[in-house]
Amino acid sequence: GEDVEQSLFLSVREGDSSVINCTYTDSSSTYLYWYKQEPGAGLQLLTYIFSNMDMKQDQRLTVLLNKKDKHLSLRIADTQTGDSAIYFCAEGGGSQGNLIFGKGTKLSVKP
Amino acid sequence: EAGVVQSPRYKIIEKKQPVAFWCNPISGHNTLYWYLQNLGQGPELLIRYENEEAVDDSQLPKDRFSAERLKGVDSTLKIQPAELGDSAVYLCASSPRFGGSTDTQYFGPGTRLTVL
Questions:
Q1: For B41, which residue in chain A has the nearest alpha carbon?
Q2: Tens digit of pLDDT for each residue in B24-66?
Q3: How many angstroms separate the CA of residue A78 from the nearest CA in chain B?
Q4: Which helix (H) or strand (E) holds B92?
Q5: What are the tens digits of pLDDT across the range A27-86?
């Protein structure tokens, strides 16, 4: 079945760039998403990319998609302490017709 | 614009008791989703509604879980009876139109259920 894999933890210093990686298996996925979840809160949509694109930039966020390798990354420039959260990668538009989420990457930002 | 509203935010019950969660989607959103999020995991779909019709309930444990979306707006998810393993966060999401996962989903804050 479809699967989305992410590393579980990432620790960076304030001001550095963070790169969160994700791999997925469903080659028919149409959209790939990044969601942010802060403690005790729901998921907040950060950005998404169509599968026919290889890059999307939105302010401090850069999404890179390598469709051949089924690899997605989220780069956060100038990471701030407020960026500390769990980041979920999700694939959609594939054979299951629903969003398939990874387990999330916990980003810790140290001052 | 108000976001997806869920209540209660927290619920503690004893096993074998019933429990219900309520969701009010973003106004005008036709599609509503209920997800289950276990600790340390990503959300997993339980049921998806298009208006008042459940178009995908294949992952809903129907022996104890039920859901309804009367009038195609608010939705209620019920568990009866609750088991220890049901302790989790129950997330509701909505999207503007039916399109499966190709339509952006907006999530509520979730209901954290603890079964003792």
A1: A103
A2: 999 989 899 999 999 989 999 999 998 999 988 989 999 999 9
A3: 26
A4: strand B88-95
A5: 777 889 999 999 888 899 999 999 889 999 999 999 999 999 999 999 999 999 999 999
Q: Is A45 close to B105, i.e. CB distance below 8 A?
A: yes
Residues of B in contact with A97 (CB under 8 A): 56, 100-101
Phi, psi angles (nearest 5°) of residue B97: -145, 165
- Asked whether the beta carbons of residue B107 and residue A98 sit closer than 8 angstroms, the reply is no
Beta bridge partners of residue B50, listed in sequence order: B31, B53
Block residue for tokens 């550095």: A16
- Of B45, B101, B107, nearest to A31 by CB-CB distance is B101
